[in-house]
Amino acid sequence: MLKFLPILLILLYVGVTIAFSHWRLSRELRDKSGPLDHPKLLPLLARLGGAMDLPPIRAHVYETQAVNGLASGDGRVFLTRGFLDKMDRGEFTPEELTGVIAHELGHVSLGHSRRRLIDFTTTQVMRGLLGRLIPFVGLWIGNLLAAAVAARLSRSDEFEADRFATALMIRAGLGHAPQVSLLGKLARLQEGRAAPPEWIMSHPPHEKRIRAIEHSAASWGA
Q: pLDDT tens across 138-197, in order?
């Protein structure tokens, strides 16, 4: 029994870490979000729902000036206030932000939150075991491998969510062009910034995502 104690302690640590992170994010979203009722987006969300034979999609606004979309573990999808403000200034179109919501719906529908919990647990166990098995440098190697594996899996999720969004946007009659134009704009916003190595990035480079979206759309005869 004692030989399994390190693994049990690692699992306990991971469980506490996940529970605390979930609680903190849930409280943050509860305190700083509300329903998305922008008149330019509501008709487009109704089209997304109709494309899935569902009522109009409900989304939420996360009150931060960052430009992002996100999906919570309980199945809700969010746009940040920064995204909406830029849309109101004409920097993004309603169709482009609808593509973001479709992407986040992909994360929800494909169960990425649950999958990432399993992956996180696995990589943390690997990290802890390497730290014990290899003196001095084992923990450093474990951290590096865990970060690389987590980033690789996250990039795979992004491609999957993009494919889901492309199919949904095409079926809703909005096409894949808003996804492509949005990623092009986001790429221009990041011009001049030093990019980390791709193997450590949680999201694929914008140009790779654009090529994958174009390929998906072409394969479906869009």
A: 667 777 777 787 888 889 999 999 999 999 999 999 999 999 999 999 998 887 777 778
Check if the beta carbon of residue 61 is closer than 8 Å to that of residue 34. yes
Which is it for the CA torsion 97, 101, 107, 113, positive or negative?
Answer: positive
Q: How far apart are the first and last CA of the chain?
A: 59
Residues 101 and 52: beta-carbon distance below 8 Å? no
Task: Report d(CA 131, CA 126) in Å as an integer.
Answer: 9
Handedness of CA 22, 27, 33, 36 (dihedral sign): positive
For the chain, how big is the Rg over CA atoms in Å? 20
**What CA–CA distance (Å, rounded) separates 48 from 56?**
7
Q: What is the pLDDT, as a whole number, of residue 148?
A: 82
| pTM for the structure as a whole | 0.83
According to DSSP, the residues that pair with 78 across neighbouring strands are 60, 70
Name which of 44, 35, 37 is nearest 178 in CA terms. Answer: 44
- 34, 60 contact by CB (below 8 A): yes
Residue with tokens 């992909």: 106
Give the whole-angstrom CA distance, residue 68 versus residue 97. Answer: 10
Cβ atoms of residues 108 and 58 within 8 Å:
no
